[in-house]
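Supplementary Text 2. Reproducibility record for the structural model of the 306-residue chain.

All settings were left at their defaults, and a single model was retained for analysis rather than an ensemble. We include the record here because the model underlies the residue-level annotations in Supplementary Table 4.
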Amino acid sequence: MNTPGGYQGFTTPRRRPLTPGRRDHTLPAFNSPASIKLGRMLESAYSNAALDDELPGDVTENIAAAAVSSTTEEYDPPRVWFQREEDRRQNDEFVRRVDEMVQELKRLIRDRKNEHTSQMNEWAERQTRMAADMDILEKENSSILSALKEEHGEETELSNAVASLQVKQRQCESATKQLTEKKRALEKELARRHNVIAEKRQVLGVQAAKNPPELAFFENLMGISITGGQKDILTFVFTYISLPEPSRPFTISIDLSQREYSVPKCTPEIADLQAHVDWLNASRDFFGFLKRIRSGFVDHYLNSTI
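Retained model, structure tokens:
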């Protein structure tokens, strides 16, 4: 059984035996319209037309007679063999098998459609999952890129910090070198000053040995004593100015905290005291200043007794 396309239920109709008047036999030429129509119907191998319904019997006989009379050569008159029942049965069988084939094709198309729809749904679901996975991967990639960017920023900051620390280290090394040199210079200067202080101490020791006799000389013969009750202030007490009262004190305090000397207190107050202080700051002659002050106290005493 020949089944084109592999479809079950379809078979190629069998070839009919040679029959006069069918396609297997050459038909004579007919000239009338009815004969032409009949010839066309006879040429169709599987025509379902019923000749008895189309043409009356007398027309058919006339056509046959006309065909015989129109030929110029002797031939066997065509004989038409109509198998209506067999043709109808075969046509019905053919239609049935075509319907079966159509139904089978519809079933196959429906199955293929359902299969395609299922595949499309699976593909859509797969695409959805892939899109979700891609979104997740993109988010992870974005987070990884952000972390890498932050790490790169931190690395850059650390590199800058290390570079800054290296610069500071070099600066500290240079400063340490300078400080070491300064330390050595200061040590030398300190040693020199220690020597100077030692020399001054030696000189002061010699002078300190001379101070008591001089102080005694000032106190006993000149009537001057020195006290230091406050910081950077020397108080000079003059006596033997008043003849009736030799022990009466005449005092003057001198502030030594600044380069310019000043007199915060003088008892009793003498005339031209500020002029004497200006002279002391200009001349820096301390003993001459004391002589001027003693003379001022004497003048003040003499003026007060007159």
